[in-house]
Amino acid sequence: MEDNRTWYLFSYKVSAEPSTLRVRIWRNLKALGVLYIQQSVCLVPKTPDIEKKLTKLRTLIDEHRGASFIAEVEKFSHYSQQELIQLFTAQRAAEYEELLESCTRFLKRMNDESQNDSRFGDIEENEMELLRLKRWHRKIMKRDYFKNELSFHSKECLKRCEEKLYSLSDAVDQLEGVYHGE
User: Fold this and answer.
1) Separation of alpha carbons 136 and 96, rounded Å
2) For residue 32, is pLDDT > 60?
3) Predicted structure pTM score
């Protein structure tokens, strides 16, 4: 574990109305995987990518006559840094668990469809769902600064989803060929 990690502390204040700016800022910060320590005050590990995105948010906030502040924090007591890492890890774990639940539902649906008379249209829908799950996984991984162990489990589950979908797709292709006299 890295003992000399640098963090960004980001705080902002914007007008309550219209709410679209606050929602936009919140969505951008959520995508970065920040840890809110108070309302409108958050922490995130320092990376070049994060710095660019926080700077863009500051510009957006300034353009809307809001106020924002970015500070680099170089040192916490060891316990505080460990606690922060645990909080970040817990946030990602919750996201990975939600993804794993969705993957499990996907696998169950694939099993159900393999027992029924699945058609090409179902396969297309399932392919779209698998793409959505993979995109979701990439987004979580992007903000998984401390390499949560559930990342590995979710990759494995996505692999099983893909294998099951391809297996079902092959079976449907063969079935469709039989129905069309091929």
Assistant:
1) 9
2) yes
3) 0.84
